[in-house]
From TrEMBL:
GO molecular function: oxidoreductase activity
Pfam family, one: Aldo_ket_red
SUPFAM superfamilies xrefs: NAD(P)-linked oxidoreductase
Residue ranges of coiled coil: none
Species assigned in the record: Novosphingobium pokkalii
Keywords of the record: Oxidoreductase
EC number(s) stated in the UniProt entry for this protein: 1.-.-.-
Domain of life of the organism encoding this protein: Bacteria
Enzyme class: oxidoreductase
Keyword Oxidoreductase among UniProt keywords: yes
The protein, known as: Aldo/keto reductase family oxidoreductase
Keyword Protein biosynthesis assigned: no
Domain NADP-dependent oxidoreductase: residue ranges: 23-289
Length: 302
């Protein structure tokens, strides 16, 4: 039986006409916890990602809220690095998100999203972004109003494509009902340690609707690189069989799914960013892939 092997061919970003490298790079931890935000170091990380083939660069306005630079910090730092290296832009698909504000905590009203996209573009120093995603569902805003804000962004040329993050399949359907264009992406938390999207319909809906799946926290917050963790031990074993490590195996496990899931690597170390290509070395038999899922479930497959 043929092993499940990975391809480096670009992944379609839904029905957008855009395509991206099969692994993305994310900026949740771009801002330094100690406030020492060296633009040279940030440029080194971005260059490492570009050299590895990455084209999708994922950020959000809330990134930086847990660092001295505060809300909008990651966007601002990335924007400064972009301004100093304008030649990067043509090699990038840039994505950002909005809708979370600590203390509210969620706001997807028309007025708020209008201000949020303008603030994001100002921090990034860009006239538009390729992908804008609602970061989390705001239960107090009707999806019709959310859609109105998103339509306005697209028609104003501020955003090329629209997606969602942390949305359930029902929430995707409700928002899509009020949009004249397709949602091109959904961004769930998904890893060998957090497999709910396999069962809750997220991945099935994405395949049905031809939406890209962008997976955040693909290493399970670091748990999957711990050899003492039952799943981490299996991933380390699988990675070693192909001359690499548990991190590469964890990414490849995600990418083996037929939805062609794009994991978002969050490492801020150039060496580790460069190593993301090791994921393409790792292959799986069906038995090996399901053994990882069974270990994560804590029980045999039914």
């Amino acid at each position: 039986m043929t092993n499940l092997s990975l391809k480096t061919e670009p992944v379609a970003l839904g029905k957008s006409g855009l395509a991206v490298f099969p692994i993305a790079w994310g900026m949740w931890r771009l801002a330094s916890p100690d406030g020492n935000d060296d633009l040279g170091a940030i440029a080194d990380r971005v260059e490492a990602a570009l050299d590895a083939g990455v084209t999708l660069f994922d950020t959000a306005d809330i990134y930086g809220c847990d660092a001295p630079i505060g809300f909008g910090g990651a966007e601002a730092l990335f924007g400064k690095a972009l301004a100093a290296n304008p030649h990067w832009r043509e090699r990038m698909v840039i994505a950002t998100k909005g809708g979370i504000w600590l203390g509210k905590p969620y706001d997807s009203t028309l007025d708020y999203l209008r201000s949020a996209i303008d603030a994001s573009l100002e921090r990034l120093g860009l006239p538009s972004v390729d992908l804008y995603q609602i970061h989390r569902r705001d239960f107090l805003t009707h999806p019709r109003e959310v859609a109105e804000a998103l339509i306005e962004m697209v028609e104003a040329g501020k955003v090329r494509q629209i997606g969602v993050s942390n949305y359930s399949p029902a929430e995707v359907s409700a928002l899509q009902a009020f949009l004249p264009f397709p949602l091109v992406s959904t961004q769930p938390e998904y890893s060998a340690a957090r497999f709910a999207p396999l069962y809750d319909g997220t991945l099935d809906q994405a395949m049905e609707r031809d939406m890209a799946v962008l997976a955040w926290s693909p290493l399970g917050g670091g748990r999957l690189t711990d050899p003492a963790h039952p799943v981490g031990a299996l991933l380390a074993q699988q990675g070693a069989a192909y001359g690499t490590d548990a991190s590469a195996a964890a990414l490849s496990w995600i990418m083996a799914h037929p939805a062609r899931i794009v994991p978002i690597v969050g490492s801020q170390q150039p060496r580790r960013i460069a190593a993301l290509r090791d994921a393409f070395k790792v292959e799986w038999t069906r038995g090996e892939w399901y053994a990882v899922l069974a270990a994560s479930r804590g029980e045999p497959m039914p």
